[in-house]
Amino acid sequence: MNPLNARDVIDNFDLILLDAFGVLVDDAGAIPGAVAFIDQLIERKKDFFILTNGSKFTPDVSADGYRKKGLKIEDHQVLSSGSLLKDWVSAKGHQGKNAWVLGPESSLQVVKNAGLKPVDFELDADSLVLTNQDGINFPGDFDAIISRIFNLHQRGKNIELVCPNPDVVYPLRSGHFGITTGALAALMEASLDALLGAGSPKFSYLGKPFPPLFEKATAGFKGKRICLIGDQLTTDIKGANDFGITSILVTTGITTEVADHSKIKPHFILKNLNL
Ligand SMILES: [Mg+2]
Q: What's 2-53+209-270's CATH class?
């Protein structure tokens, strides 16, 4: 794990993949250094994409949010875990089928774009999509969903669970953190396991560290020098390592140091994006 500075990254890579939360933005706005870093990528004509596990917004809405923070990111440069939902729907043959959605209003469009039909909890559904911790009435919505799944199971009907975002925590602002979608999925799985035992439904996870987002981002860049800059070991760094590209941990998000005993190690450590 060699230290690196942001200018080295720009000099040494052709395609730069960036995580969003903890790297470019947090709840307080653009992370110091991020705006100038993106400006420099554009000036140097480097290719870059944002690989986010966020599934709260469609990519165009996310890009607009980044631009409002001063980050010059175009719609097509945002590759989100939410946009992978469409492939999952196709693989399951669920096009046009009813889905329950746990998450904010904005994520209903993500679910609709994937080809599912969001419905109220009172109606039967074939899948549950857990998009984000925002907009969930907790524990009321969880109570309603686990009860519905239990009752469907009693009638011999199984439901597919999908969580586009496997992240369990995210950075709110410097030194403050929040729990997120993956943690809620784990909680729901534990509850269903207690109720239904073996054979209880499990979540499919779609974003990093799994290959599809990396495959989409790197298609057309064969033979190029590619890196990913991220702040989470289990999603960003593991994903990049498994995919065979250079992993760079930036310490402005949830990981400020890598323990010696950590099984997941980045190739490089970057203190921040300051040039
Ligand atoms: Mg992050």
A: alpha beta
